[in-house]
Design goal:
Shape: globular
Largest sheet: 7 strands, parallel
Strand content: 5-15%
Low-confidence stretches: 1-5, 273-278
Distance between the termini: 50 Å
Number of helices: 9
Structural class: alpha/beta
Oligomer: single chain
Length: 278
């Protein structure tokens, strides 16, 4: 494993045009790191990088593409030198219960959230091992512990990502790389706005949501501290992780949380004649 120092790093962030990825890039630059922002939305990610100054650059990346991953690393190498840290953050969801989603929507979620991230990890493994150091940070989800109604395939990808991440970390235990996985709860991004429009995703509103910058703080802190795994919030996240082990308990508790989420969602929706939420 690499030394625990607060040396400034070259960081490649996926899904960096908006949300958590953009917040990670901003905070990492503020702390003196150099950051290659990547996103499938080229115009948005280039604009974001320009706003961050000379320690930031950008390139387009569809994380499903192996060739795209190679280009992203090569672009970062050309701009800043070898990538020290990969932050796998990009992800998608399609809202709705399982029976209402098309086969293609299920496939989209798997191809981006799981297979795309796996492709990035495999690219990083080869390049970082060759350079003799590196740190892979996978931004996962608290749904990797809790199966939630309205998120079946999304949850499946996060369960799979967590298993993949820890399996790779164990395989590479004698190598030069560090591995961190971080599990955010509901975060106030465009994805949460998408979910607010669909009552099937009401459980996302059962608990307090977090600002992207709060999650970014944990991600950027992890560049220096290199924890094995981080859950949010620290105490409630540990309780949820334990609850996820017991299927009978989940079947009792999760419907209660879903009902609370429906009530909370109603409070957030605009009401006729006001144009604003309550």
């Amino acid at each position: 494993m690499g030394p625990r120092t607060e040396q400034k790093q070259v960081v490649l962030v996926t899904g960096a045009a908006n949300g958590i990825g953009a917040a990670v890039a901003e905070l990492a630059v503020a702390r003196g790191h150099r950051v290659m922002l990547t996103d499938v939305d080229e115009a948005a990610v280039v604009s974001r990088a320009r706003s961050l100054g000379s320690r930031a650059a950008a390139c387009v990346l569809d994380i499903r593409s192996s060739e795209g991953w190679t280009r992203a690393f090569e672009t970062a190498d050309a701009a800043f030198g070898h990538v020290d840290v990969l932050v796998n953050n990009a992800g998608i969801t399609h809202t709705g219960v399982t029976r209402d989603l098309s086969r293609q929507q299920h496939r989209d979620i798997v191809e981006v959230n799981l297979l795309g991230t796996i492709t990035g990890v495999c690219t990083a493994l080869e390049r970082m091992t060759a350079q003799g150091h590196g740190h892979i940070i996978n931004v996962c989800s608290m749904t990797s512990f809790l199966p939630l109604p309205g998120y079946a395939t999304y949850c499946a990808t996060k369960y799979g990502l967590r298993a993949f991440h820890h399996s790779v970390a164990i395989e590479e235990r004698d190598g030069p790389l560090d591995f961190t996985i971080i599990h955010p709860p509901s975060t106030r991004t465009g994805m949460l706005e998408q979910e607010k429009a669909d009552p099937a995703c009401a459980i996302a509103f059962a608990e307090k949501s977090y600002a992207p910058r709060q999650i970014a703080g944990a991600v950027v802190d992890a560049i220096d501290t290199r924890p094995v795994e981080v859950v949010f919030p620290p105490l409630a996240g540990r309780v949820q992780r334990i609850a996820g082990v017991f299927p009978r308990l989940m079947r009792r508790v999760i419907p209660i949380a879903e009902a609370r989420g429906l009530r909370q969602r109603e409070r957030l929706l605009p009401h006729p004649g006001t144009g604003t939420g309550r």
